[in-house]
From TrEMBL:
Residues 140-151 have a biased composition (Basic residues). This is Uncharacterized protein. It comes from Nocardioides scoriae. It comes from the Bacteria. Residues 140-164 are annotated as: Disordered. Keywords: Coiled coil, Membrane, Transmembrane, Transmembrane helix. Residues 152-164 have a biased composition (Basic and acidic residues).
């Protein structure tokens, strides 16, 4: 075998190896980042959940303490003629917001971000993506190899032309 051909083959294999190692490092970095962001989202959700529980407990205590005593007298007809149940009001007289609504607003955005990140990572690491990347790397390696062969042939022709 010609030594330039062996050198070109070794260089091509070296480049392919470097590309594979770089790809593996990138995948590992993405996986670590995804885990970190997922853990951070879970920690935020837990903190928000405890904060929401504390606020709900404080609100419950304040409504029990500050609520005026309501008698069940028959002459109180404030809800007469209404079809639905009476609205729940807090101590100030403002309508109460359900805990589910507050929880949905507080956890909605971080949860959506975490789910979207998980979907993206799962899609990036799918078999179809890996095959597409493998195909592109193989095609680029072949193209580079052909280009090097053309350059080597041209260099040989130039050196023979100078020698002659």
């Amino acid at each position: 075998m010609d030594s330039p051909l062996v050198l070109a083959l070794a260089t091509g294999l070296g480049v392919a190896l470097v590309l594979v190692v770089a790809l593996l490092a990138a995948v590992r970095h993405l996986r670590t980042t995804a885990r970190g962001e997922t853990e951070q989202a879970r920690a935020e959700a837990a903190a928000l959940r405890t904060r929401l529980d504390d606020l709900a407990e404080r609100l419950e205590r304040s409504t029990h303490r500050d609520a005026p005593a309501v008698s069940d007298a028959a002459y109180v007809i404030t809800d007469a003629g209404r079809a639905g149940p009476p609205d729940r009001l807090d101590a100030v007289g403002l309508p109460m917001v359900a805990d589910r609504v507050v929880l949905n607003a507080a956890l909605g955005e971080p949860l959506v971000k975490a789910v979207a990140l998980g979907h993206g990572v799962r899609r990036a690491l799918s078999a179809e993506s890996r095959n597409r990347i493998r195909f592109e790397v193989r095609r680029e390696t072949r193209r580079a190899r052909k280009q090097r062969r053309r350059e080597m042939k041209q260099a040989w022709r130039d050196s023979r032309a100078r020698a002659a």
